[in-house]
Specification:
By secondary structure, this protein is of the alpha/beta class. The chain has 8 helices and 12 strands.
Length: 229
């Protein structure tokens, strides 16, 4: 049995998942919620495009046949604006014409449903590699804020970017790398490679909070440490 904390890197990802079969969607959505940070689960292509346009999405997983707009058509629409975001097409069977259409969309994979756990983990690793290789890896911090690993900036929902100092970058990346865990005060000194007094660390965290705007999921456990949930 896989230990879900082995996939801590996925906790910084937001996934758009579209599947018109209610049962399959609910099962895969539950699995995704165990390993990734944010799941946007929808039942059709129209909803998928709406969610994509209005949220920070790192990975797109699309059922190929969804009635009103197929997964292929949704992928084509996304590719008109973004050549590199990882897209996965899911199908119960692979028709030749579908395969030919999918090959033109720069997919990271084309897999069978129902999606098995190991297959899901495989495509998430492939997606992370794609994001890293194109400097596109953004960690969703909350509904209004993401962190851009390539630009080393906060990206707000209105697309504004907030520049961070070296120590702020090291601190937020430490919090993201151990998301959901409490990092003791000493852990920040180790990550920043300098001794920090309690006052200096509090000031650093305060500056990060101000730049975040919505800092509700950056928690302080008194006399213990900080965590990003």
């Amino acid at each position: 049995m896989a230990k879900f904390n082995e996939f801590i890197e996925f906790k910084n990802l937001s996934v758009l998942y579209a599947e018109d079969n209610d049962t399959l969607r609910e099962i895969t959505e539950k699995t995704l919620n165990l390993v990734v940070g944010k799941v946007f689960s929808v039942a059709n292509g129209v909803e998928a495009l709406d969610v994509y346009k209005n949220n920070t999405i790192n990975i797109v997983i699309l059922d190929i046949h969804m009635g009103n707009i197929s997964g292929i058509d949704v992928a084509k629409k996304i590719r008109e604006h973004n050549d590199n975001i990882p897209i996965v097409i899911v199908s119960g069977s692979i028709a030749t014409e579908d395969l030919l259409a999918a090959c033109k969309l720069n997919l990271i994979d084309y897999i069978h449903k129902p999606i098995e756990f190991n297959a899901l983990i495989k495509i998430l690793y492939l997606a992370v590699d794609r994001l890293k290789s194109h400097g596109m890896l953004q960690a969703t911090i909350n509904d209004t804020l993401s962190y851009d690993y390539f630009g080393k900036v906060f990206v707000h929902k209105n697309c504004e970017k907030t520049v961070l100092t070296k120590n702020e970058i090291l601190a937020i990346e430490l919090l993201l790398s151990q998301r959901g865990k409490v990092i003791p005060y000493s852990g920040f000194s180790q990550a920043l490679d300098e001794e920090m007094s309690d006052g200096a660390l509090k000031n650093l965290i305060l500056r990060i909070r101000k730049k975040m705007g919505d800092d509700s999921n950056l928690r302080n456990l008194a006399k213990i440490g900080y965590s990003l949930v």
